[in-house]
Design goal:
Blueprint (H helix, E strand, L loop, with lengths): L1 E2 L5 H8 L1 H10 L6 E2 L10 E8 L2 E2 L1 H6 L1 H7 L5 E9 L4 E5 L6 E9 L4 E5 L2 E3 L6 E4 L5 E5 L5 E9 L4 H11 L1
Antiparallel strand pairs: 1-10, 2-3, 3-4, 3-5, 5-12, 6-11, 7-10, 7-12, 8-9, 8-11
Length: 174
Amino acid sequence: MFYSTARFKFAQHLESNCQLIKEELRQLQKANFMPWPEKSLYKKGWDVFGLYAFGKKQDNNCNLCPETTKIVESIPGLTTAGFSSLEAGTHIVPHSGYSKEVLRGHLGLFIPENCAIRVGNETRQWEEGKCMIFDDTFEHEAWNNSNLTRIVLLFDFQKSYVKEAIESELFSIF
């Protein structure tokens, strides 16, 4: 299930700072990234650079991206944040998240054509400079069928901090 980003004020803040975030990302080296730990979800090509992991600040990485760190720290209830990179030809198989307490967001940073994510029955393509927010406890998968690398700023935040936005979204469905 995707949510309208208009209901989350911090999404506008992320989008308005996209160029600054991309500048810090460009300064990182491939060696700064590490493979996503759940290797059963992909064969190759999914790497991450973490800023926050399960509420714990990754100080060394945050020092490399101080402006991005300040920006993500403005997300209410932030639990996880970092850059997620999918190399050309990478497919993350269908899976479901573990916690109904958080929502996941992506800010598109480098988005080639032929990259998409499916959450439940809905498939969307990322857009550079735009956020998408979804409930990752719904089955989801992602793929990069291009010849270039796709990178997003991935973040998780606690639903309890944005309860009003979520309830109004659900109410508007009916």
